[in-house]
Every structure is written in C-alpha cells, then in structure tokens.
Amino acid sequence: MVVDSRIPRPKRYLNADALIANLxxxxxxxxxxxxxxxxxxxxxxxxxxxxxxxxxxxxxxLSFEERGDEESIDRxxxxxxxxxxxxxxxxxxxxxxxPLNEAFADLFHELQRGGMLKKWEFDDGxxxxxxxxxxxxxxx
Length: 140
Fold this sequence. Notes:
The chain is mostly helical. It has one domain. It has helices at about 15-25, 45-55, 60-65, 70-75, 85-95, 100-115; strands spanning about 120, 125.
C-alpha cells in the first residue's frame, strides 16, 4: 500500500471520538445543584446532548428531540436518551457557565498542540478566527 505524503496523518487526540470524550470529561466537572434522586438526566448527558444538537445543526430543541433515538447520535456522542426540549432548557438554565471555559481551553490546547491553528496565526502570535455567537467583544 502506497501512502500519499501530502495527506496529513490524523492525530489521535484530534479525532471526533477523542474531542467528544474530552468534552464529556469536562462536562462531568460542572456542578449539579439539582436533587440527584429526582434527576432523569445527568449534567454530562444533557450538555452532551446540547453539543450534539449544535454540532448536527438542528434548527430547534424539539427537532433534535425527535432525532434522539437515532443510532448515529448514540454511536458518535454516546447519548442513549435525549432530554425533552423543556427538560433540557430547565437543566441548562440552572448550570454555572464558568466550568465550561475549561472545556474550551482543553480543545484550544489540543488544536494548538496539533498545529491546527498555525494557518490562522497573525500579528505576533494572535489568531484570526470567525466566532459564531452573540454578545462577542474583541479583547486585546
């Protein structure tokens, strides 16, 4: 078998499974102030379902809930049961956001380590990236 040297070798820590596993570990660090005896969905499962919904570009929580039983969602994200749209809102509205910054920092570190950000580097080590979100402010 001939290997084409122009095709980059995948890095084991930058594949979808590794990145999702990394995020799920961080999701487990998010404090859950709910009464555990009455919880049907863990914080980790709920945050993973939210990640899956955004990754799959679902137009709404309800449309994602309707896809929740698909085998591909379980295989890729490890989600057996997706919370309903109202359950997901209720759970996510009550969490602290700050611990999720650590998840972003982990992913950013892996991208830096893998050399994936080099093509966006400019102006003395800063990165030029497009941000999809609201209430974004540039910082220097």
